């Protein structure tokens, strides 16, 4: 089933529902995804500032996939970026 995700809160609820349905404890999911249990709790409660890379690891551990509906007129630009890459960010000053 496809579900439209329009907020961090909805994504957190989806992750929690999948975890509970699979009978996975929060700390077990955290360990297998390489994140801390506090992070899992924050994601499930919809914290706006969670790190996307870590969220993607949680989704992967639960067998979930994140998909984006990309307008057709963006495909050429995406193909070009995939071929050429993007300029790396400059190092941060301390």
UniProtKB/TrEMBL annotation:
An example of a GO molecular function for this protein is: DNA binding
Q: Which Pfam family name is an example for this entry?
A: HTH_31
Q: Which InterPro entries match?
A: Cro/C1-type_HTH (IPR001387), Lambda_DNA-bd_dom_sf (IPR010982)
- HTH cro/C1-type domain segment(s): 15-70
Please report the name of this protein according to its UniProt entry.
Y4mF family transcriptional regulator
Could you tell me which species this protein originates from?
A: Sphaerotilus mobilis
């Amino acid at each position: 089933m496809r579900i439209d995700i329009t907020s961090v809160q909805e994504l957190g609820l989806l992750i929690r529902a999948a975890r509970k349905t699979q009978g996975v404890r929060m700390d077990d999911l955290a360990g297998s995804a390489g994140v801390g249990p506090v992070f899992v709790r924050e994601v499930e409660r919809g914290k706006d500032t969670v790190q996307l890379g870590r969220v993607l690891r949680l989704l992967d551990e639960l067998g979930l996939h994140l998909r984006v509906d990309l307008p057709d007129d963006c495909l050429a630009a995406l193909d070009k970026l995939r071929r050429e890459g993007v300029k790396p960010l400059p190092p941060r000053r301390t």
